[in-house]
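Handout, section B. The chain below has 292 residues.
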Amino acid sequence: MPHKLIALYQNGNYLVKLYSDGTKIKQTGADNFIAEFPDSIDLKITNYCDKNCPMCHEGSSTLGEHAQLDAEFLATLKRGTELAIGGGNPLSHPQLEQFLERMSAQGIICNLTVNEKHLLENKERISHLIRNKLIYGLGISMQSYNEQAVEFARCYPNTVLHLINGVFMDYDKIADKGLRILILGYKKFGRGNAYFSPEIENQIAITKKKLPSLFGKFRLISFDNLALEQLGIKELIGTKEYDNMYMGDDGEGSMYIDLVAESFARSSTSTKRYPLETEITKMFKKIQLIRG
């Protein structure tokens, strides 16, 4: 059965097609994609989390605060925009469901990223969000093999396992199960800076060497921009195939918004951050002019 087209829109000089299985296609006749607004936003809604992961680049803790979810710019988001909603633990935010309902009514495509342990504590709640299409995609952050999380991912095909490069090493245990995985670059930011070690560096090198043997063992392997760099993906697959699949640098069609700190930037590890404004295209244009 073909997957349903859930969003179709023009963004600057390119056309965006987004399908119900999470497939995203950008098409342009130009040499580069030039966006007028972000078609993907990494949105932090809380800095509260009780898991205290040692590599957390957001520095989330039980002292973290929840964001107000009524910022003016939210009403200016374009239909079809994808929100990658996270924290902290986004499930801890008391207005999460109401926010998802409001964004859905606005035509925004919401995805949620949760820790594997929070998933197991909230399986029925998350299943409800998926069944009612309040979220289209679910990211499960895993540090090591977790059988229950893997089985949940197998039940819901739009689930992606988020695996930090140099931290998660149990690839053989999750291979050949029809799973989707997203390998995230190791972020030397927040607590991740202090946690980085020669062991992590060595495990990144091991993953890079092992990677070719993993192709074909997953329904999908994807990478964030930092992992693309750390693992040398362009050299591995060749320039032509890489250029055909590459979605652009951070800030070219995407951005990071921290609703807790009421700031925005090119990415979650950017040091240059700016106060929230009232209109998303103005915020986006500002980050396109900066680096870092």
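Note. The mean pLDDT is 95. Compare this with the example in section A.
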